[in-house]
């Protein structure tokens, strides 16, 4: 199933952009028979920058498979201080408590990079999961990757400097949306990294001087990904390696 719609740019022209559920790696990993069972229930939705998909401690009614968008899982304290504890792009799913039995969001889920997602009613996904077939295996393996990501990010924040953490964060976002142009504000980046805005500005300017990124207000363009990978801490590589290892296991019974 492919969803196509028109985008009008400044009222001058329109272009066709095709959005397919199979651009999400979890959906693409399903056997044809299982995919066809859930495909009619998938609904494409546009996501806005800063849009909250779930507030903490609320019932999850829809599960989202991101498509060229990035969702941050955010812990918010009573003082309104926020910290990002997870990143989900087109390699993943937003709404894991549904298949784990909790049904309620533990943390806030907020759109970090705006584009689209395919959503499905939580009850329908749960029914398919309970069949115990390939989707069951894939989502359990993906849950393991998420647990590893959360723990590795905690290690990263405790032991690595802001530059390495910034590179790790940029690369994970880039992986999740597969777009060199990222529309991100200083304020939002600072909140997600748990640092001062001045620290984000200083780090971004340094990477720009090295011609690794181009940075201006509200936008980052990745110019040299290999060089970013050389400067990043080992946390990024560990997160990606574990994801690829576990997703490879999903292909085999």
UniProtKB/TrEMBL annotation:
<dbReference type="GO" id="GO:0003677">
    <property type="term" value="F:DNA binding"/>
</dbReference>
<dbReference type="GO" id="GO:0003700">
    <property type="term" value="F:DNA-binding transcription factor activity"/>
</dbReference>
<dbReference type="InterPro" id="IPR018490">
    <property type="entry name" value="cNMP-bd_dom_sf"/>
</dbReference>
<keyword id="KW-0804">Transcription</keyword>
<dbReference type="InterPro" id="IPR050397">
    <property type="entry name" value="Env_Response_Regulators"/>
</dbReference>
<keyword id="KW-0238">DNA-binding</keyword>
<protein>
    <recommendedName>
        <fullName>HTH crp-type domain-containing protein</fullName>
    </recommendedName>
</protein>
<dbReference type="InterPro" id="IPR036390">
    <property type="entry name" value="WH_DNA-bd_sf"/>
</dbReference>
<feature type="domain" description="HTH crp-type">
    <location>
        <begin position="177"/>
        <end position="224"/>
    </location>
</feature>
<dbReference type="Pfam" id="PF13545">
    <property type="entry name" value="HTH_Crp_2"/>
</dbReference>
<dbReference type="InterPro" id="IPR014710">
    <property type="entry name" value="RmlC-like_jellyroll"/>
</dbReference>
<dbReference type="GO" id="GO:0005829">
    <property type="term" value="C:cytosol"/>
</dbReference>
<keyword id="KW-0805">Transcription regulation</keyword>
<dbReference type="InterPro" id="IPR012318">
    <property type="entry name" value="HTH_CRP"/>
</dbReference>
